[in-house]
Design a protein that fits this description.
By secondary structure, this protein is of the alpha/beta class. It has 11 helices and 12 strands. It is globular and about 55 Å long.
């Protein structure tokens, strides 16, 4: 495998700074502020830039290692992408994303951004502001699902790209491998291609071609591709990473969530049918508690938007404080373990693209802004066709 040495992937030293969209999601600051407070208590080397309306974030002024960044607008969960891009130019989401964008005058103000806001808007605004890495056509959403090995399996794409080519799936495998290597510390994570069977001859033409590309990358020592996997293999832990298009991934995710909810309902119903069942539930309570903890979707909250020139993590819109804290944890781990550099390095090794690595998470960030920063003067979004993506130098 062509991977850097442990010394080359040494964690970042010093503070890791996260930009937090405190207004996003179904509950806004009532969830994000308690989550940020709990996160800071367990991460003494972390700093937070809390983005939102100043009057809403007033309780956070004076918190250690926190800075309030003013934003006058909020992107709601039902706002269309056009509104997010063209009208709400001072939204908390856009301001938070701007803080992880490196400019010509220096590095970014934050290492990563976390938001629970509108997924479509977040993807569109992030792609517009940060651009994609060289060699990547489309960003992808990656998250984790629990498996029976008392761990979890990373799956991507989970909904960002409904229609994909074989080349896109190869790119997803490269980015996902970098994510697993950075967050889980596995230098050669195993990769599986989600299919209707393990045989190479199965699947549609896109899947067959993607399998060929992945096998070529594996034979060259650039990926640890183990072959096709089926839907149940996500939960057996057969591979560290499962690659699929966004349509299939989103259906698999929602199906798993629905099944877990139904089984929990079945268990409650059966234990409450009689006094004997209630007594049995009391005896089994410790075991049931452990099972509930293992399948608690809140523990796996925090999806990475991979392929951008900056680290962005998406929390579930309905997340409570505990779940949002997990998203902050994932963003912190990714930034500290230099995910952005790892993704770029794997892209260069596997897809053979040229160019220097991106800067945002590698260079020391700028000093935190004053206790209250006015960032309303953001660049306007053009009303014409999107501008071509141009390579950025470190």
């Amino acid at each position: 495998m062509n991977t850097p040495t442990v010394a080359e992937w040494a964690p970042l030293t010093g503070a890791v700074r996260l930009a937090v969209d405190c207004m996003g999601g179904d509950h806004g600051a009532s969830v994000t502020l308690p989550a940020c407070r709990a996160f800071l208590a367990t991460h003494p080397e972390a700093e937070l830039l809390l983005v939102g309306r100043a009057e809403v974030l007033a309780p956070a002024e004076g918190w250690p290692r926190c800075t309030v960044v003013a934003a006058s607008e909020v992107i709601t969960m039902d706002d269309p992408v056009e509104v997010a891009l063209r009208r709400k130019r001072d939204s908390s989401m856009r301001v938070a994303l701007s803080l992880v964008k490196a400019g010509d005058d220096g590095p970014a103000a934050a290492h990563a951004c976390v938001s629970a806001g509108n997924t479509g808007a977040l993807m569109a605004v992030a792609r517009y502001m940060l651009k994609t890495l060289d060699g990547i056509d489309r960003p992808a959403i990656a998250s984790v699902m629990p498996n029976r090995l008392d761990g979890y399996t990373t799956v991507l794409d989970l909904g960002a790209n409904v229609d994909c080519t074989a080349e896109h799936l190869l790119q997803f495998a490269v980015m996902g491998s970098a994510l697993v290597a950075a967050v889980e510390g596995k230098p050669h994570p195993s990769v599986g291609l989600l299919n209707i069977g393990e045989e190479a001859i199965k699947g549609n033409e896109v899947i067959k071609r993607a399998g060929e590309l992945l096998r070529e990358a594996a034979s060259a020592g650039r990926l640890n591709f183990v072959g096709n996997v089926e839907g149940n293999d996500i939960f057996t832990g057969k591979t560290d990473l499962v690659v699929c298009d966004g349509f299939v991934g989103n259906v698999a995710l929602k199906t798993a969530e629905g099944l877990a909810s139904m089984l929990s309902s079945f268990i409650r119903q059966e234990f409450s049918r009689s006094w004997y069942g209630k007594f049995a539930a009391l005896i089994a309570l410790p075991v049931l508690g452990k099972v509930k903890k293992r399948v608690d979707h809140r523990r796996y909250n925090g999806a990475a938007l991979l392929g951008l020139r900056g680290l962005v993590f998406k929390s579930h819109g309905s997340a409570d404080a505990f779940a949002f804290e997990q998203a902050l944890n994932r963003a912190y781990d990714a930034a500290r373990n230099r995910l952005l550099e790892r993704v770029h390095e794997r892209i260069r090794n596997t897809l053979q693209t040229a160019g220097p690595p991106p800067a945002p998470s590698l260079q020391p960030v700028q000093p935190a802004p004053a206790a209250l920063v006015d960032v309303s003067a953001l660049d306007a979004v053009p009303t014409g066709s999107p501008q071509p993506i141009t390579p950025q130098t470190a």
